[in-house]
Amino acid sequence: MSQLIPSIKVLNLNIPTPTGNSPIHPVLLHDEDGYTLVDTGMIGQFAELQATLEELNVPLAEIKRVIITHQDIDHIGNLGALLDAIQGLEVWAHADEIPYLTGAKPLIKFTPERRAMLPAPVLALADQLLMQLPEINIDRTLADGDILPLQGGIQVIHTPGHTPGHLCLYLGEQQLLLAADELRVVDDELVGPAPPATPDMPEALRSLKKLTSLKMDKVLCYHGGEFIQEPEKRIAELSEKSEA
Ligand SMILES: [Zn+2]
After folding, report:
1. What's the angle, vertex CA 137, arms to CA 176 and CA 146, rounded to 5?
2. What sign does the dihedral 12-16-22-24 (CA atoms) show?
3. Cα 74 to ligand 1 centroid, rounded to whole Å
4. N or C: which end of the chain has fewer CB within 10 A?
5. 153 C-alpha to ligand 1 centroid (Å)
6. Do domains 2-142 and 147-243 have the same CATH topology?
């Protein structure tokens, strides 16, 4: 894991794939009232998540809330386990993502093809999570432009396309964008969302435009990690390309 500034820690969890490990990066924010976890890792990774938190000396009970950037299973994978383990844990998510997170609508990308790719023990845990979803209470419904009372004010940016309620979080004080899956770092370059995993690519590219007015030193992508080489310029380029 790496530390951007003392109150922000980037976790480093690994998803094994046929071509090697694929790292993913939930983020842990520390504020006065405790910790906020942004995304929870892949299904089946709870032990790894717990070990990472232990290394950081973060007791589970001090995690007060989870912000879910979107419904994909590598982001909500340990939500059920966290809710079981932490009393009073709050869940915050964008309004358009809530029907999926509470099981009212099926997860968009958890298709039979995707299920078939998971090893049997992970699939069993996935089914357990799906059964838990209807019990999940969303404590705070997030909307575009909301300023969250964390880290000096975090701006919610609704960036649909990858999923309907996908969101990015902008930490103005730190000039840091938590891009979730709206941006990725691939071979040291900042790129847009992954086409095969983005059902509405035109919408996702329009969403990129919303990021072009932000002052930033750093982007943190859930897939690919930190990008610091003039991210504003690169995001402007990507959004111009999307117009072409
Ligand atoms: Zn993802």
Report:
1. 35
2. negative
3. 5
4. C
5. 24
6. yes
Q: From ligand 1's centre to the CA of 75, what distance in Å?
A: 6
Residue 43 class from Cβ within 10 Å (0-12 exposed, 13-18 middle, 19+ buried)?
Answer: buried
Q: How far apart are CA 141 and CA 101, in angstroms?
A: 12
Q: Residue 155 and residue 144: Cα distance in Å, rounded?
A: 8
Name the residue ranges covered by the structural domains of the chain: 2-142, 147-243
Percentage of the chain lying above the pLDDT 70 cut = 97
Neighbours of ion ligand 1 (CB under 5 A): 72, 74, 181
**Contact between 193 and 204 (Cβ < 8 Å):** yes
Question: Which helix (DSSP H) or strand (DSSP E) does residue 76 occupy?
Answer: helix 73-76
Alpha helices, DSSP H, located in 77-143: 79-85, 98-101, 112-116, 120-132
- Alpha-carbon dihedral angle through residues 12, 17, 21, 27, given to the nearest 10 degrees: -10
pLDDT tens by residue, 67-98: 999 999 999 999 999 999 999 999 999 999 99
The fourth-level CATH superfamily of domain 2-142 is Ribonuclease Z/Hydroxyacylglutathione hydrolase-like (3.60.15.10)
